Amino acid sequence: MGKDIAFARAAGVALLAATSLSGCVAATLVGGALATTGVSVAQERSTRQALTDTEIQLTINNKFLNEDYGLFADISTEVVEGRVLLTGSVPRQEESIRAAELVWSTPDVTELVNEITVEEDPGLMSYGSDLWISTQLRAEILADTQISGVNYNVETVNGVVHVIGVARNAAELSRVLNLASRIDGVKEVVSHVLTKHDARRAVG
């Protein structure tokens, strides 16, 4: 990923970087716990699981930062009930493999969905378009009264939309995926969503 794109993504996670460098991850978790607890009341996952997911995400990002700033800047991490989704673009396959190794070395990870692409330099325009797609989809999901928006996370890479979360039912999930497919610039929609009663869901 180009330097401009890496800078743009890094700016979005600057607070996490500062936290990681200072070694105060535990303090961040305390602050994040307050926000997570409030949101999780409306989520399908439990408050305990939401807090565990936050800890997993912070730990993975901290590992990426300590391993290689490029991993931290180029890869996005989403965690839902111990299931980790990695998206982004890296210049070499070895970096994707190393990112996966770091994820699996993190406690409480139950599944890894590695959607990292290997691409020398996707360009700043592509990143801007992806960000705009994700922003529009998040807004539409939250605005739709037939969708429990807090249960879904969205990432877009090169026009491919990745959705992860917990759907209340198949109809709701279908509605989310339909919203995504109708947005200009979307090339493909990939669902990593489990429904509420799926036996694969973590309990806790």
UniProtKB/TrEMBL annotation:
Top-rank taxon, per record: Bacteria
The BON domain, residue ranges: 52-120, 129-197
Record bears the keyword Signal: yes
Signal peptide: 1-26
The keyword Signal appears for this protein: yes
Keyword entries, A-Z: Signal
Family annotation (InterPro entries): BON_dom (IPR007055), Lipoprotein_DolP (IPR051686), Transpt-assoc_nodulatn_dom_bac (IPR014004)
Transmembrane domains' residue ranges: none
Protein name (database record): BON domain-containing protein
Organism whose genome encodes this protein: Pikeienuella piscinae
Lineage summary: Bacteria, Pseudomonadati, Pseudomonadota, Alphaproteobacteria, Rhodobacterales
